[in-house]
Amino acid sequence: MYLATCVYAVYDSVTRRCTFANAGHLPPVLVEPGESALMLDVPPGLPLGVGGEPFEEVEVELPEGALLALYTDGLVESRDHPLDEGLQAFVSTLSDPNQPLEDVCDHVLNTLDTHHGEDDIALLMARVQGLPTESVGDWTLPREPRSVGRAREYARAQLLSWDMEPLVDTTELLVSELVTNALRYGEGEIRLRLLLDRTLVCEVWDSGLVQPRRRRARDTDEGGRGLQLVGLLSAAWGSRRTPRGKTVWFELPLPGGETSLTDPAEALLSLF
């Protein structure tokens, strides 16, 4: 049997809340601006590979500029001292979290005993930043067929207000696919959200629990190509469970970046 430990975190840059789940790993460390570092109380579930038990989720509000640290046991554990001492030593190294992240990481690694060679060491740090309200579009749609057209209209108007006209056609097409899937396979009202940051992220929420499954349509099929199209046109896409259903999302690069958009017409033709 192969086992692995893991901490999984999902940060919502609009609500500024982060959801954690722990599979037998060491606790995340949080440093809020002007406060001392503390270990978050995220119940350690069973390691991955054991199975049989659901993971408990913990939601924490993270203020602007908060520092989050994730790490492996090789950073804090050795034969020379108990684990508790290593954890406290690690927490104490985060006394000045306002420095650039690379400097904070260097300080931690230079301060702690990281040369014992007993285990691999990994240290991941993030400083959270919320999205301003003007970078968010958020709409609730009734569960009815005309919501597909409304979703396209909302997306187009929002992108034009952001001067993102090159993204309009692709976004409209993919929004249409996801909202149609939510109507066809989901439950309850539908929520559409656009987030403008270093990329454009689109999220479609509904109350259904069934996760989308990408399949390859046959040449004679009239439908079934929606998620294939999402995969072809987006830089990334996926789905995740929420406390009240699921979210399906996709990401597009912004105009002028290193990654160029795929032409929607070419993508459509490639599916047949």
UniProtKB/TrEMBL annotation:
PPM-type phosphatase domain residues: 3-128
Molecular function terms, GO-annotated: phosphatase activity
InterPro entries: Bact_Sigma-Reg, HATPase_C_sf, HATPase_dom, PPM-type-like_dom_sf, PPM-type_phosphatase-like_dom
Pfam families in UniProt: HATPase_c_2 (PF13581), SpoIIE (PF07228)
Highest taxon of source: Bacteria
Ranges for domain Histidine kinase/HSP90-like ATPase: 142-250
Keywords for the protein's UniProt record, in alphabetical order: Hydrolase
Name the UniProt record assigns to this protein: PPM-type phosphatase domain-containing protein
Organism: Streptomyces afghaniensis 772
